[in-house]
Write a structure and sequence with these properties.
single chain, two-stranded antiparallel sheet, mainly beta
Length: 125
């Protein structure tokens, strides 16, 4: 599968974007004001001590460790990670837990078929 985050705006509070799987829109994303650099990184599933469960991890980011995809609504929830949701507003994503559950299953299924990657690109800002 092809996972792509297109970041479309940054306002000093958060960085907003959209996540696509195989070219189809999946959900909205929210990252901190200073997001990880654009690039392509390994996408895997690991145990998260913070969440006490399996979570999607983004690995191989120069200067970053412990980057996950998880639920949350505002930039303060990102902790340097990528939040997902089905609704988007200024510095906000909503219905995050529901979208995370759907996305997590898709990522798990993809990882079960072999190594996966996720790309982050900056457009529109």
């Amino acid at each position: 599968m092809t996972f792509l985050v297109q970041r479309i705006s940054a306002d000093g509070v958060s960085t907003q974007g959209c996540l696509y799987i195989d070219g189809s829109f999946e959900c909205f994303t929210l990252e901190p004001a200073k997001p990880i650099p654009a690039g392509t990184f390994d996408l895997s599933i690991y145990w998260s001590p913070h969440f006490n469960r399996l979570m999607p991890h983004i690995d191989g980011i120069p200067g970053f460790t412990g980057v996950e995809i998880h639920w949350g609504n505002v930039a303060a929830n990102t902790e340097g990670c990528t939040l997902v949701g089905t609704m988007q507003g200024k510095d906000f994503v909503g219905h995050s837990v529901e979208e995370f559950d759907l996305l997590f299953q898709k990522i798990q299924d993809a990882v079960a078929t072999g190594p996966q990657h996720i790309s982050y690109v900056d457009i529109g800002y």
